[in-house]
Amino acid sequence: MTRQKPFVAVVDDDTSVNRAIRRLLRSMGVAADRFRTGDELLETMRSIPSYRPGCVILDVQMPGTNGLEIQQRLVAFGAPVIFTTSHEGVIERDKALAAGAIAYIRRPFDDELFIKAVRAAFASARK
């Protein structure tokens, strides 16, 4: 699973949302892997040390561990995080951004805003 070019891990339990985000990423020329839960992503990152996405796109509300908790655990891996969510929580948004999220984007979102956030995440990962 090691790659030359940066890639994204998309974590969302909604298959149609996950598919739409990956399609948009492909249109930018960015590869993306799909995960239904944050725990699944963390397990992959722990078991394959070379697996390091240039960015992780997280939903806030998922079965099992929620997106904010996954974000905290991703700090150890240095992965920039972008949240996409249909959840209207100001508290969650503030927590995500305070913990270092690149962006907190409400769905449905503007494609250009999303693309800018992904580019910003890749730029922050290179620093």
UniProtKB/TrEMBL annotation:
SMART domains: REC
Modified residues (4-aspartylphosphate): D59
SUPFAM superfamilies: CheY-like
Top-level taxon in the UniProt lineage: Bacteria
InterPro entries, per database record: Bact_response_regulator (IPR050595), CheY-like_superfamily (IPR011006), Sig_transdc_resp-reg_receiver (IPR001789)
Keywords, sorted A to Z: Phosphoprotein
Pfam families associated with the record: Response_reg
Domain Response regulatory per the UniProt entry, residue ranges: 7-122
Record-linked PANTHER family: CHEMOTAXIS TWO-COMPONENT RESPONSE REGULATOR, STRESS RESPONSE REGULATOR PROTEIN 1
Entry protein name: Response regulator
Originating organism: Paraburkholderia bengalensis
